[in-house]
From TrEMBL:
This is Short chain type dehydrogenase. It comes from the Eukaryota. Keywords: Oxidoreductase. PANTHER family: 5-KETO-D-GLUCONATE 5-REDUCTASE (PTHR43669), SHORT-CHAIN DEHYDROGENASE (PTHR43669:SF4). One of its GO terms (molecular function) is oxidoreductase activity. The lineage of its organism: Eukaryota, Fungi, Dikarya, Basidiomycota, Agaricomycotina. SUPFAM superfamilies: NAD(P)-binding Rossmann-fold domains. Belongs to the short-chain dehydrogenases/reductases (SDR) family.
């Protein structure tokens, strides 16, 4: 049943970023749809919808959007907080099996593309006052090599390009697209990221009326910072 409350759809609802974003948006009056392999549909409430899904299957992404629309309505904020990485030897990246590479790139790129495609279809149905924001949780791998993470690096680079292209293509329609990458104050990578810092950034991005810098490198308690 549709609702007048705004809806955030969080694809990848892990215990750090996913849950922090859910709490933050929920506290602001949003209804929350959580999608992951571990959530239990039986634990859904009138304010939180749990949708078990496997992001290595792109059809599961479509099913998640369909379910949210049936139960809550069309989401105005979509967070793609999913990542996959199968480690390779640092001196032999092509030792990684194609099966693992294919699974990782499906999750990091293909399912993200389907999610963005579904989000855009939904945004077109929403009133002009709706947020219409899509956020991809990224990291430094679109601009830096970490030898053991070739599949994730290719995936995040693909995701970053997807967001960059979308931020330009849909800007005039009022749709916002962001690639979020938490950093340390000096701009170096932050490997133990802060869920609450992500939640605050995501809230601010969703509340902004216009598209900001698509690559949101940010620092906890500071916000967006442009790094070379």
């Amino acid at each position: 049943m549709a609702t007048l409350s705004p809806i955030v759809l969080i694809l990848g609802s892990g215990p750090n970023i996913g849950q922090a974003v859910a709490r933050h948006f929920g506290s602001k009056g949003y209804k929350v749809a959580l999608v992951s392999r571990s959530v239990k549909e039986s634990e859904s409430t009138d304010k939180q919808l749990n949708i078990p899904s496997d992001f290595s299957k792109i059809e599961d992404v479509v099913k998640a959007f369909t379910k949210v629309k049936q139960v809550f309505g069309t989401p105005s904020v979509v967070v793609y907080n999913v990542s996959a990485s199968s480690l390779s030897p640092p001196d032999d990246p092509f030792a990684l099996s194609y099966s693992d590479f294919n699974k990782d790139t499906t999750i990091n790129i293909h399912s993200a593309f389907i999610a963005a495609q579904q989000a855009v279809q939904g945004f077109s149905e929403l009133p002009s006052s709706a947020s219409k924001t899509f956020i991809y949780t990224g990291n430094v791998l679109n601009v830096q090599i970490l030898p053991r993470f070739i599949s994730q690096g290719i995936g995040k680079s693909g995701g970053a390009h997807l967001i960059w292209a979308a931020s330009a293509a849909y800007k005039n329609r009022g749709y916002k697209f962001y690639y979020a990458d938490e950093r340390k104050a000096d701009g170096s990578p932050k490997y133990r990221v802060d869920g609450d810092a992500h939640a605050e950034l995501f809230w601010n991005l969703s509340s902004d009326k216009e598209q900001g810098p698509w690559m949101q490198t940010f620092v906890k308690d500071v916000g967006y910072q442009k790094f070379d």
